[in-house]
Amino acid sequence: MRPPIDDAAIMALRSELPEFEDRYLDLLDIYDEDLTPDIVLMELADFVANLVATRDMEAVLERCLAAVENLAAGTEEGPEIVAYAFFNEIPLGSREVVRSYLGPVSTHLAELMYRGESPEDITSRDGDEQARAEPAAKAAPSGSLTP
């Protein structure tokens, strides 16, 4: 068993979204010390889908997706957890509405997830391309127009 959840990102999410607190406490009752950020984000995805379906509380929806953006952009594990635990749980019928509220990092992650690419594939591909470009850039003579 893992210790009680004290993940800073989840604590920030809780402080930004008091409307989600009851759901978080329900999860804590169910999972106790086995509660993970993944589970919290899956529940947040359900909460967001309900907001979209009822077309209620637009300000709350906006804050939810701003919190998701902050998590994706602000932590090392953020992109992966947001992609797999949050975007993967958003129902098809809610995705377009959700996309209209996303910031740049979460928009990119949603596009990757919804077209079937994983964040790791993109990261490793980008890293390989950068690694191949660096030797070429170092080999270019000074004063050359090639980067």
Give the helix/strand layout.
Blueprint: H1 8-16, H2 21-31, H3 37-54, H4 58-74, H5 78-86, H6 95-99, H7 104-114, H8 119-139
Q: How many domains in all?
A: 1
Which regions have little confidence, pLDDT < 50, spanning 5+ residues? Answer: 1-6, 125-147
The percent range for helix content is 55-70%
Structural class: mainly alpha
For the residues shown, what is the average pLDDT? Answer: 80
How does the overall form come out from the CA principal axes? globular
Number of separate strands: 0
How much is the radius of gyration in Å? 19 Å
Which band does the percent of strand residues land in?
A: under 5%
* Main beta sheet strand tally, sense and closure: none
Query: Span from first to last CA?
Result: 52 Å
The secondary-structure element order is HHHHHHHH
With helices defined by DSSP (H or I, 4 residues minimum), what is the helix count? 8
Structural overview:
- It is built from 8 helices and no strands.
- The protein is mostly helical and 147 residues long.
- It has one domain (8-139).
List keywords for this structure.
globular, disordered N terminus, 147 residues, mainly alpha
Summarize the structure.
69% of the residues lie in helices and 0% in strands. The chain is mostly helical and 147 residues long.
